[in-house]
Amino acid sequence: MKDVNLQADMLQAMRRLAKSVTIISTSNGAERFAMAATAVDSLSTEPPSLLICINQSASSHAALATGAGFCVNILGLEQQALAHLCSGAIKGEARFSSGNWLTSEDGIPYLGDAQSAILCRQDGHFSYGTHTVFIGRIVRIHTSPRITPLVYLDGRYTTTALPAPAQACAG
Ligand SMILES: Cc1cc2nc3c(=O)[nH]c(=O)nc-3n(C[C@H](O)[C@H](O)[C@H](O)COP(=O)(O)O)c2cc1C
User: Fold this and answer.
1) What pTM does this model have?
2) What is the pLDDT of residues 84-129, one digit of tens each?
3) Is residue 162 part of a domain?
4) Residues with CB under 6 A from ligand 1
5) CB 84: neighbour CB atoms within 10 A?
6) d(CA 18, CA 20)
7) CATH code of 102's domain
8) Which residue owns the Cα nearest ligand 1 atom 6?
9) By three-state DSSP, how is residue 169 classified?
10) Domain span holding position 43
11) Which residue's C-alpha comes closest to atom 19 of ligand 1?
12) Structural element, H or E, at residue 66
């Protein structure tokens, strides 16, 4: 039986958990998929691996469930519109209409201008409730020198980017 109060309390608690916003991108060979996700975390460095939690109703779920590789694209604060595009009514290929999308050797789409694009082959998955946890074995990483992440906190976008260091005064 559903505990509605506990669900509401959980949602309130999670509003206090700041998460960097990512786009998970994948392909089934014929179609590309991209969706905003914050349920992403590192798993281990031995081997280098991470995990993502994807709702079974998401359009990319079927491709992932057949074992497709994927990319975790960590967004910068200037990419909020892209996060919005990849979590709304516009679906499928139209989500790739903006952003510097490239394709990996394995045929996985990744964002060339992400803070970091972490390409993974899939190394297992299991279902829990409404979601599936997919384990990604990292195969390649493209990282930008900037650390200005787009962050989701209290139901809205923000950032935790540090201010640029003050310039030393000459003379
Ligand atoms: C900031 C943010 C974080 C999200 N995190 C997740 C997530 O971790 N897992 C998930 O399944 N959906 C997450 N979503 C919801 C999906 O992005 C959204 O349902 C998306 O539209 C699903 O893809 P589809 O439209 O192709 O089915 C998030 C949405 C937003 C705006």
Assistant:
1) 0.94
2) 999 999 999 999 999 999 999 999 999 999 999 999 999 999 999 9
3) no
4) 21, 35-39, 53-55, 58-60, 83, 87, 91, 152
5) 12
6) 7
7) 2.30.110.10
8) 37
9) coil
10) 4-155
11) 87
12) none
